[in-house]
Structures are given as C-alpha cells and as structure tokens.
Write a structure and sequence with these properties.
With 473 residues, the protein is α/β, with parallel strands linked by helices. The chain folds into four domains: 6-157, 3-Layer(aba) Sandwich (Alpha-D-Glucose-1,6-Bisphosphate, Chain A, domain 3); 174-258, Alpha-D-Glucose-1,6-Bisphosphate, subunit A, domain 3 (Alpha-D-Glucose-1,6-Bisphosphate, Chain A, domain 3, 3-Layer(aba) Sandwich); 262-340, 3-Layer(aba) Sandwich (Alpha-D-Glucose-1,6-Bisphosphate, Chain A, domain 3), CATH 3.40.120.10; 373-470, Alpha-D-phosphohexomutase, C-terminal domain (TATA-Binding Protein, 2-Layer Sandwich), CATH 3.30.310.50. The chain is built from 14 helices and 22 strands. It has helices at residues 27-45, 60-73, 86-95, 129-140, 156-165, 186-196, 226-234, 262-276, 290-298, 310-320, 344-356, 384-399, 439-453, 462-470; strands spanning 14-17, 49-54, 78-83, 100-105, 114-121, 124-125, 150-152, 176-180, 200-204, 239-243, 250-253, 259-260, 281-285, 302-306, 324-326, 332-334, 373-374, 378-381, 403-405, 410-414, 417-423, 429-436. Helix 1 (27-45) crosses helix 2 (60-73), helix 5 (156-165) runs parallel beside helix 6 (186-196) and helix 13 packs antiparallel against helix 14 (462-470). The longest helix is centred in the first third of the chain and has 19 residues, at 27-45.
Length: 473
C-alpha cells in the first residue's frame, strides 16, 4: 500500500511537496485522498456528485486526474470541471446543495514545489477532524467501492462568472483599474467580466503560466505587489486588484499606490452592506484591527470576532446567519444574496460597485477610519509539539494582568492597543500581531510578548526582534 505522510493532512486542506526524490503529494496519494473523500461523504452525507477542478500549475492536471479516479472508485459520480478557480468549485457545490461535494487541486500562492487539495461539502469547507478522518480511512484501507460515472463540464466557470456579474450594478463613473493575476487563471476569466461591466482594465501577468515566472501570486505580501503598485501610479488608475493563485483571495492597492489591508477593505464592504441590512452580523478573525470592530458598531452592525481560518469563518457565519465575513489574510466571504464562501472575483466586483457610485478617490473612502500603528503578521518558526503549550502558558500569564480574548490563542487588550499570539494551523509556527495608537506603545507591547517568549528557546524570535527594530525599538 502507498505510504502517506500524515503531516500533509492539515487543518484546512491536504498540502505537500510535489517535486524531488521523495515528494509527499503524488498522483498515488491524490487517488487515495479521492477514495477517502468519496467514502467519507457517501457514508456521512449520502453524497450524490463531486465536482473536481484544478489550478494551472504544472503538477495539477495529473493530481486532478488521480483524485477523479479515486472518487469514482468509491462509487460516487464525478464531474470534472477542468482548470478553474477555487471559488468555481465552491460555486458548483453550493449551487447544487448539500448532496454535492467539491475538490480543488491547488497550491494557491505557494511555490511550484508544492500543491494541495481543498475539499468542500455544500456551502462549507472540510477542516480539522473531517480531514483527519480521511487520513484514518487511508491508513486503515477502509474504502467504499464502486464505479462512479465520470463526466465533464468545462462550462462551470462561465456559469460562475455570469452569476457573480449579475450580483453587481455599477454606477455612472467609468473606472480604470490594474489587475495583477500573477499568471494564475483569474487573468483569463475576471478581466472580461469587469470590461463587460464598463471598467477599463489594464492587465499585469494575466497570461496563465503555472511556473509563475514574474512573482508568486500572493496579493497580501508587500514584496509581491510592487509591480501592481507601480502600474497603478504609472497609469493613473483608480485602484489596483491582485489575486492569489486560485482566486479565493484578493488584495487592493489604492490610487496612491498604497496597499489597503484586508480588514479595512472589509470595513468598507460592511458599511455598504449595513445601508441595506441594519443590524447585520459581520464576522472577522482575531488578527483584525480594533478599528474594524469599532467601525462596524458605529455603522449599526454587530461585530463578531472569531478564529482565523477560512473553513472556521464560513462555519461561524452559517451558525450566526452573518451576511459578511473576512480575515486579515484576504479571505472575504459574501453571504448577502450569495453563498457565503470566499469568492475573490465577486469581492473585487463589489469594491468596483462601491467605488463607481462615488466621485471620491479610493484612498479617501478610508479617510475617516482610524489608522493605527500595526505590525504585519509575525510568523515565528516553532516545533509543532510545543506550540500549543506555549499558547496555553501565554493565555495564563496574560490573563493575570489584562483582559484576554481567547477564542483563538490570546489577544491581550492593552490601554492603547492589543497584542495577539496564536498557534498556526498550517505550519510549525506561532504567529503574532500587534496594533497601537502610537509607535512607542506598539514597541512596548512587542517587547512584553518577547519577554514572555524568552522562556521558550524552541521559538525562533528573530522576526519579532526585526519588527521591534523596524518600529524604532
């Protein structure tokens, strides 16, 4: 039997190396994942069909074919929807109801050495124990058997694009924007939708190329958005929009060439939503700015802080009946007249709709939102076997002095800001983020957390020390 590396079965997906002498994620492993998924969904949810797609990286077609073979061998019918965006798979499953499942082969923003498998059921994504159950089925060789019918439907992405186009109505202002697709598939499908709505689109790296020759597609990494920022200024564009490799996240650049943090973008979408749905609930992750929750409240909404992770956020939105949600990572979920999953092309169109109905520059839409001093997410390499113990100790220590939000790690509320420490769900690391009204307070909070971490020599604190130095500490 094929040996599988259990570490590739992560919190939200299966993800591993596909190159070199001993790759973790091979077609054989992908076939087993398909078998396990088909088995699990058949037993637990009486699934009737699974929609399978992939991104355009070079390792994806072989893995997609293997997943399809695996699902079909469990006796579940499969529809191969071809090379698509991750939200296209979500659209296929959500629009066909709870008896539908979806699998997307994608490495998203990761280097080409990697690939991954994301899985969905109806409107929600598989995560946590569900993914561990798949691993257990593989390890036990416990599979359903059969001969599921396999068909193709390469029009799904066109139906997806038509559906999101119908969700927006732009105003009279004619916009000029720059789109950086990072050579992912969003460059093929999203700009034509924008142009059909009357937007002038200047394309950067819109030609699909699974080797990502220009830069890795990650619009929340400031090192990877420099070309987009420069193109916005050069072309006098109203804004820039960058997509990640599988288009479940997007990032925006304002008309001055500055990055707009995803939690500020969420505040803009929340203000718009609340004009139609006063009192609506909006879910956001523990890494978000204090300004976001305050802004939602001041515009008549109900802010709900929750655990980071796209699967967890979608589940929380469904539980709360929330119409909007989002994360600092760039995953934004629209539930108003839609399914509540992370569909970056729809998010981009909603932003264009808001901007087209005002004569103000994009940057001015955030002018009355307090801009606090904030660090990026600080990722500190930490062995998996100690990271949760460190978080427990941090919670205990911080609670002696401060009010602590502990839905996901420990977010200590200080007089002039906050600091967060949590365990990464996707890698051997702990992550931190800080925000304060002054630079001096920000440095002070970072130093307090650094002092706490000095008791754990297993943690590589260098990136935290770099941030302290960057803010003048």
């Amino acid at each position: 039997m094929t040996q599988v590396n259990p570490h590739i079965f992560r919190k939200y997906d299966v993800r591993g190396v596909v190159t070199g002498d001993s790759p973790d994620l091979t077609p054989e492993v992908a076939r087993l994942v398909g078998q396990a998924y088909g088995t699990y969904m058949k037993r637990e949810h009486q699934i009737e069909r699974v929609y399978v797609g992939s991104d355009n990286r070079e390792s994806s077609p072989g893995l997609r074919a293997a997943v399809i073979e695996g699902v079909a061998s469990s006796g579940v019918p499969v529809t191969d929807i071809g090379e698509v965006l991750t939200p296209t798979v979500y659209f296929a499953t959500a629009s066909h109801g709870d008896k539908s499942g979806g699998i997307m082969v994608t490495g998203s923003h990761l280097s080409t050495d990697y690939n991954g498998i994301k899985m969905a059921h109806g409107k929600l994504a598989l995560y946590g124990e569900q993914i561990q159950t798949l691993l257990s089925l593989i390890q036990a060789g416990d599979f359903e058997t059969g001969a599921g019918e396999v068909r193709q439907d390469f029009n799904m992405i066109h139906r997806h694009m038509a559906a999101i186009k119908d969700k927006v109505k732009l105003g009279d202002r004619r916009l000029r924007i720059v789109v950086d697709a990072g050579n992912g598939l969003s460059g093929t499908y999203v700009p034509p939708v924008m142009e059909a709505l009357g937007v002038e689109v200047i394309c950067l790296y819109c030609e699909p190329d699974g080797t990502f020759p220009n830069h890795l597609p990650n619009p929340e990494d400031p090192e990877l958005t420099k070309d987009l920022e420069a193109a916005v200024i050069k072309n006098g564009a109203d804004l820039g929009i960058g997509f990640d490799g599988d288009a479940d996240r997007c990032g925006t650049i304002d008309n001055h060439g500055h990055h707009v943090a995803a939690d500020r973008l969420l505040a803009l979408l929340a203000r718009d939503l609340l004009t139609r749905h006063p009192g609506a609930k909006i879910v956001f992750d523990v890494k978000s700015s204090q300004a976001l929750g305050d802004d939602i409240k001041s515009h008549g909404g109900v802010p709900i802080m929750w655990k980071a992770g796209h699967s967890l956020m979608k589940a929380k939105m469904q539980e709360e009946g929330a119409l909007l949600g989002g994360e600092v990572s760039g995953h934004i979920f629209i539930g108003e007249d839609y399914y509540g999953f992370d569909d970056a092309p729809l998010v981009a169109l909603k932003v264009l709709e808001i901007l087209s109905k005002t004569d103000r520059p994009f940057a001015d839409l955030f002018a009355d939102m307090p801009k606090l001093f904030a660090t990026p997410e600080i990722i500190l390499p930490t062995p998996d076997d100690v990271k949760f113990d460190i978080i427990s100790t941090a919670q205990e220590t911080l609670k002696k002095q401060y009010r602590v939000v502990d839905v996901d790690g420990a977010r200590a509320i200080f007089e002039q800001g906050w600091g967060l420490i949590r365990a990464s769900n996707t890698q051997p690391a702990i992550t931190l983020r800080f925000e304060a009204y002054t630079r001096e307070e920000l440095v002070r909070y970072m130093k307090q957390f650094d002092e706490l971490l000095q008791a754990f020599p297993q943690v590589d604190r260098q990136r935290l020390l770099d941030q302290i130095a960057a803010f003048g500490g």
